[in-house]
Amino acid sequence: MRAPLGSFDNALPAADRRDLLTAPVAAAVGAGWGGITPDQVLHVDTDPEIADTAAFVAHHGAGLLDHSANCVVLSGKRGADVTLAACVVLSHSRVDVNGVARKHLGLRKARFASMDTAVGETGMEYGGITPVGLPAGWPLLIDSAVVDEEWVLIGSGSRRGKLIVTGKALAALPGAEVVEGLGVRAPDAP
Fold first, then answer.
1. Which of 58-76 are b and which e, b meaning 16 or more Cβ less than 10 Å from the residue's Cβ?
2. How far is CA 67 from the centre of its chain?
3. For residue range 20-53, what is the model confidence (pLDDT) as tens digits?
4. Would you say 163 and 15 are in contact if contact means Cβ atoms under 8 Å apart?
5. What's the pLDDT tens digit per position in 77-119?
6. How many CA atoms lie within 13 Å of 124's alpha carbon, on the beta-carbon side?
7. Alpha carbon 126 to chain centroid distance?
8. By C-alpha distance, which of 129, 164, 142 is closest to 41?
9. Distance CA 123, CA 22 (A)
10. Which of 39, 42, 43, 59 is nearest to 51 (CA)?
11. CA–CA gap between residue 126 and residue 117 (Å, rounded)
12. Residue 157 contacts residue 128 (beta carbons within 8 Å)
């Protein structure tokens, strides 16, 4: 099956490749969400050595940068309470952590969660964290530009492989909130 974006010729429904997904992602894909059925989420098998965005688009084509999104985990404080949240922005952007994200979450301070925290709390691999299968109750902020994309390439929970879903499917994830201006185009982006 050919993927709806990129030059991937090995796309299959992610439900058929649950053995390549981390447990929380496999469970979420298998269950579906918000009217999204398991066959509407595609998986493309990719080399884990080029999972990071820059290496991935260098190998698969710079055109994917405009259709790829990154999911990052934030840690924030409000009083003594610590909140973990995920933010999804297009890959050519960065999360406005201490502006839009912090204010939207009502936090006094916000920062990127440590690698150990992000991996330990999500059950996913660093470099492959995805909004699909996040812990229940986590806030999930998605930049409106991501939702506007017909198809989006995102992590699969593992450094091996990517998921392809519609922007609208991401907005339908549990806990998702679409936030205008969450992503700020990175100064060095093409």
1. eebeeebbebbbbbbbbbb
2. 12
3. 999 999 999 999 999 999 999 999 988 888 888 7
4. no
5. 888 889 999 999 999 999 999 999 999 999 999 999 999 999 9
6. 30
7. 12
8. 164
9. 7
10. 59
11. 10
12. yes
- pTM of the model as a whole: 0.93
Measured CA to CA, the distance from residue 171 to residue 97 in angstroms comes to 20
Provide the 3-class DSSP secondary structure of residue 171.
Answer: helix
Phi/psi for 20 (5° steps) reads: -95, 0
Q: Cβ distance 95 to 72 under 8 Å? A: yes
Tokens of 9: 């010729």
The residue written with tokens 């099956």 in the block is 1
Residue 48: how many other CB atoms lie within 10 Å:
12
Strand runs labelled E in the chain: 12-13, 42-44, 69-78, 81-90, 93-95, 109-112, 140-143, 152-155, 162-165, 176-179, 183-185
Of the candidates 52, 71, 59, the one whose C-alpha atom is nearest the C-alpha of residue 8 is 59
For residues 147 and 90, give the distance between their C-alpha atoms in angstroms, rounded to a whole number: 10
First to last CA, the chain: 30
Q: Is the dihedral of CA 170, 171, 177, 179 positive or negative?
A: positive
Pairing of strands 183-185, 93-95: antiparallel
Residue whose pair of structure tokens reads 């050595």 in the numeric block: 49
